[in-house]
Design a protein that fits this description.
elongated; 440 residues; 9-stranded antiparallel sheet
C-alpha cells in the first residue's frame, strides 16, 4: 500500500485569504502517505499566491492520521505530514519562524474510523493562517487639496498681496530671513491658501480648536515665502499685517498660529501673540462717527504713546474698514483669525461608528463658525468633548481607503451626553464634495 495515490483537498474559497483574520485549510492524505505530488504542490502554490503575506502572523500545521496501525507509528506519520507541508510553504516564501508544528497522530479524529470515508477525513494536516488586523490608511485629504495662489515681490520693498477670496497681507520690507539668519535679497515668492468656507476648512483637514477648546473662526490662511526655493521666515520683532475678508467678526478676535501634528492635523495656539488693541499698536481700528454712523479707521503710529489716525475717505476704504478684521502676525505658515468661544453648558458626544476605516469626524455648527473634531478615548470610543448643549450642527464622518470613498452625515441638536450612530456608505469623490458644499 506504499504506492497508493495522494490527494489534496482545499476547503474554503481562496479569495478570503486576504481579508480573514483567521483562515483554515485542510490537506488530506491517502493511506500511509506524506510525500507531496506535483498536483498537490500546484494547489498549495495557488494558496500561497492568495495570501496577504504582509499581514500574515502565524501558520499552524497540525498533522493527523486515522486509527489504523500502531499509535506510535501514527505519531511519526502525522509529524512527517506536517513537516512536508512546512517545507513546501517555506520554499514558497513563508518565513519558517512563522510556522508552528503540531502532530496528534490518531488522537484527534474529526470523523468515525469505522468507514473508509471517515478514515480519509482523519488523514489530514490542518493549516491555520492567522493574520494581523489590517491597518487601513485614510487618504481622503489627498483627494481634496486646495489649489495655492502664487505672488512675487521684492525683498527691499513692502510686499502687499490680495488673495482671490479677499485676504490682504502686507509684509514689511527687508523683514524676511533665511534659516541661517541671513536676510533674503531680491525676488520673493509667496504662496497663499485661503479658508473661509466651512467646506474648504473640512477638506483641508482643519478645525477650530485650540488644545481641545472650541474656537470661533473669522478665516484661516496658509502663507509661505521663499527665495530661490529656500523657505523664509519673519525676522524677530517684525510683524506682518493680515486683513481678513470675513465680516461681522467679534471685536475680541486674536491671531492663532497653526502647529501641524504627527497625524497631519493642525492645532491652533496664540503662542504668546495677541490681537493688538488701540492702546497698544496700530493693527486695529479707532472708532469715529461720521454722518451718523460708526466708522472705524486704521490706527497708525507703531507702539508709540502718540498715535496718528488716517481717516478712511473713499467709499471703498470705508467698506473695507467696516467689513474686515485686521490682525498682526510674527510668523508665516498657518494663521487663524479666532476667538475662544464661551460655552456655558457643555457636554461630550459619543459617536458610534465602525473605526476600521479610520474615519475623520467633524462637527460643523450651523450658527457658529466653528468646526470640531473627535478623538479616540481610552475605551477605544470616538468622542467629541466640550461642545455646547442645544446647538444645531452637522455631524459627519468620511474616509478614503484603497481608492474607495466612504461618507456618513446626520443633522443633530446636541443633547447632554448623547450618543449618535453613523453608518459609513460608499460614495464618490464628486458626491462627497457636493455634500461638503452644503455646509456653507
Amino acid at each position: 500500500m506504499k504506492n497508493t495515490i495522494f490527494f489534496l483537498l482545499l476547503v474554503c474559497g481562496l479569495s478570503q485569504y486576504t481579508s480573514a483574520q483567521n483562515h483554515k485549510e485542510i490537506v488530506l492524505f491517502d493511506y500511509d502517505q506524506f510525500i507531496l505530488t506535483d498536483k498537490a504542490k500546484s494547489k498549495l502554490e495557488e494558496v500561497v499566491l492568495k495570501l496577504d503575506l504582509a499581514q500574515l502572523k502565524t501558520v499552524e500545521l497540525n498533522g493527523n492520521t486515522d486509527a489504523d496501525g500502531d499509535s506510535k507509528y501514527n505519531i511519526t506519520l502525522s509529524k512527517n505530514r506536517a513537516n512536508e507541508v512546512s517545507h513546501y510553504l517555506v520554499a514558497k516564501g513563508i518565513p519558517a519562524e512563522k510556522i508552528q508544528l503540531k502532530f496528534e497522530g490518531e488522537n484527534k479524529p474529526v470523523a468515525e474510523n469505522a468507514s473508509d470515508k471517515g478514515k480519509q477525513q482523519n488523514r489530514r494536516v490542518e493549516i491555520t493562517f492567522t493574520f494581523a488586523e489590517k491597518e487601513f490608511t485614510n487618504t481622503i485629504f489627498n483627494q481634496l487639496q486646495k489649489e495655492s495662489q502664487f505672488f512675487t515681490g521684492k525683498s527691499n520693498e513692502v510686499i502687499t498681496i490680495i488673495g482671490k477670496e479677499g485676504t490682504k497681507i502686507t509684509i514689511p520690507k527687508n523683514s524676511l530671513k533665511k534659516a541661517n539668519g541671513k536676510f533674503a535679497i531680491g525676488k520673493i515668492d509667496i504662496e497663499l491658501q485661503e479658508f473661509y468656507k466651512k467646506s474648504d476648512v473640512v477638506a483641508a483637514n482643519l478645525h477650530t480648536m485650540s488644545n481641545g477648546i472650541m474656537l470661533e473662526s473669522g478665516g484661516m490662511v496658509y502663507i509661505k515665502a521663499s527665495s530661490k526655493g529656500e523657505e523664509l521666515q519673519l525676522k524677530k520683532g517684525t510683524e506682518m499685517i493680515l486683513e481678513f475678508a470675513s465680516k461681522d467678526n467679534s471685536n475680541d478676535m486674536q491671531t492663532f498660529y497653526g502647529y501641524p501634528k504627527e497625524d497631519k492635523t493642525v492645532d491652533w495656539s496664540t503662542n504668546d501673540n495677541y490681537t493688538v488693541t488701540e492702546e497698544e499698536n496700530w493693527s486695529t481700528y479707532a472708532v469715529f462717527y461720521w454722518d451718523g454712523r460708526e466708522q472705524r479707521d486704521t490706527i497708525y503710529g507703531g507702539k508709540s504713546t502718540r498715535k496718528a489716525f488716517k481717516r478712511a475717505t473713499t467709499d471703498a476704504e470705508k467698506v473695507s474698514a467696516i467689513g474686515s478684521t485686521i490682525l498682526t502676525s510674527t510668523k508665516l505658515g498657518w494663521i487663524n483669525c479666532d476667538r475662544f468661544y464661551e460655552i456655558k453648558d457643555k457636554t461630550d458626544l459619543l459617536v458610534d461608528i465602525d473605526l476600521k476605516y479610520k474615519p475623520e469626524i467633524r462637527l460643523v455648527f450651523k450658527d457658529i463658525n466653528s468646526i470640531m473634531s473627535g478623538h479616540i478615548d481610552k475605551n477605544n470610543k470616538l468622542v467629541l468633548s466640550g461642545i455646547p448643549v442645544g446647538r444645531k450642527a452637522t455631524l459627519m464622518a468620511f474616509s478614503c481607503v484603497e481608492s474607495e470613498v466612504y461618507f456618513a452625515t446626520k443633522e443633530i441638536i446636541i443633547d447632554k451626553n448623547a450618543s449618535v450612530g453613523l453608518d459609513l456608505q460608499k460614495t464618490s469623490v464628486a458626491e462627497f464634495k457636493t455634500a461638503l458644499q452644503q455646509l456653507n
